[in-house]
Amino acid sequence: MLKKTLKGALAGFLLALVFCLVKNSIAYKFPSKRAGMQAAISEKSIDNLFIGSSLFRQGVDIQTLEAELSGNSFVLSYNGNQPVQMSEELKMLLRNEVEISHVYMDLYVYSSSLRPAISDTRLIWDMDMQGKNVLFSDMVTYSEAGFREFFDFYVTSNNEYMIFYPVFQIVMNQEYYKGGNIRETFGSTKKSLDNLGTPGDREGIHDIQRKALEEMVELCEKEGISLSFVEIPKYYTLEQTKYYMRLREELMECIGDASCYSTENVEFDNTNPVYYQDLFHLSGEGRREYTMQLIKVIQEKETGDE
Q1: What value does the mean pLDDT take over residues 230-253?
Q2: Which of 139, 178, 210, 226 is nearest to 56 (CA)?
Q3: Does 228 score more than 70 pLDDT?
């Protein structure tokens, strides 16, 4: 009886081990037609790659980009996407020989002021082992990640996604197109937005995030890729706080003279509550309006450079 139990336990352990090995080393190659790294890789060539956090997913309208901006576009976004992660995402696309003409990178105060951490486990699912190991190494070095974090990162994350992969793909195909969010999201009211508390102050832009921003500039220059930073406008009650303005100024210093589409040079009414779901994320109407205004500035710049 004991021998039979031990055999069953061993078989269960081996099955779980194979499951984790497949999930971490192969599953990132599973096709995803609408969003994420594999969807971007399947494009093979991307003229306009918008790479960022949920601010890009909610703030950049892929259908407007496709209709109004020359070339094909793709939105690669993960919740809380940090510069250290965006750098690895771009490297993975290049390892897979994706031809990219222009990268538009999310310039976000809060993701740039945090220690390396994964907010969206779909990123772990999408990364190859080389990228996974770099991201976890950053967490060990700068965020004191230990065995618990290792277990969460490599063992427990995305198990439900692995098991119910076809179901998740049906949902994603209804909500995404070329990485961009196509689900309609509604705006809010002035009263509800004004009652929302801001996330508060941070010590400053984290050194490793600053280094990643510099690395993105160097990598794009080396690969012959044009790079521009894009700042999604936040609701005015957040943008006007003293600590936000201080952090934002420090972030602008990090990118130096790099091309940047900031809130100063893209016209957008960030006092209109209909344009916002919360203090950070635009509504469907806000997303379309902001994207139109961003495209106008991009086109003006391109015309001026000719």
Answers
A1: 96
A2: 178
A3: yes
Closest CA to 202 of 234, 245, 138, 236: 245
The residue with tokens 């209909």 is 274
The whole-number pLDDT of residue 306 equals: 54
Q: Which amino acid is it at 24?
A: N
User: Which comes out higher in pLDDT, residue 211 or 20?
Assistant: 211
pLDDT at 54: 96
82, pLDDT greater than 90 = yes
Q: List CB contacts of 10: < 8 A, sequence separation 6 or more.
A: none
CA distances from 284 to 93, 184, 185 (A): 28, 5, 5
- Domains of the chain plus CATH, in order, are 31-305 (3.40.50.1110)
* Residue 13 pLDDT exceeds 60: no
Number of neighbours of residue 95 by Cβ within 10 angstroms: 12
Pairs from 262-269 (Cβ < 8 Å, separation ≥ 24): 262/107, 262/229, 262/231, 263/231, 263/233, 263/239, 265/297, 266/231, 266/233, 266/290, 266/293, 266/294, 266/297, 267/293, 268/233, 268/293
Question: Residue type for 203, please?
Answer: E
Q: What SS3 string covers 30-83? A: CCCCCCCHHHHHHHCEEEEEEEECHHHHHHCCHHHHHHHCCCCEEEEECCCCCH
DSSP classification of residue 27: G
Q: Provide the terminal-to-terminal Cα distance of the chain, rounded to the nearest Å.
A: 80
Please, are residues 72 and 48 in contact by the beta-carbon 8 Å criterion? yes
Distance CA 99, CA 264 (A): 31
Q: What is the 3-state secondary structure (H, E, C) of 254-291?
A: HHCCCEEECCCCCCCCCCCHHHECCCCCECHHHHHHHH
Q: Is the pLDDT of residue 5 over 80?
A: no
Q: What is the pLDDT of residue 289?
A: 98
Average pLDDT of the chain to the nearest whole number:
92
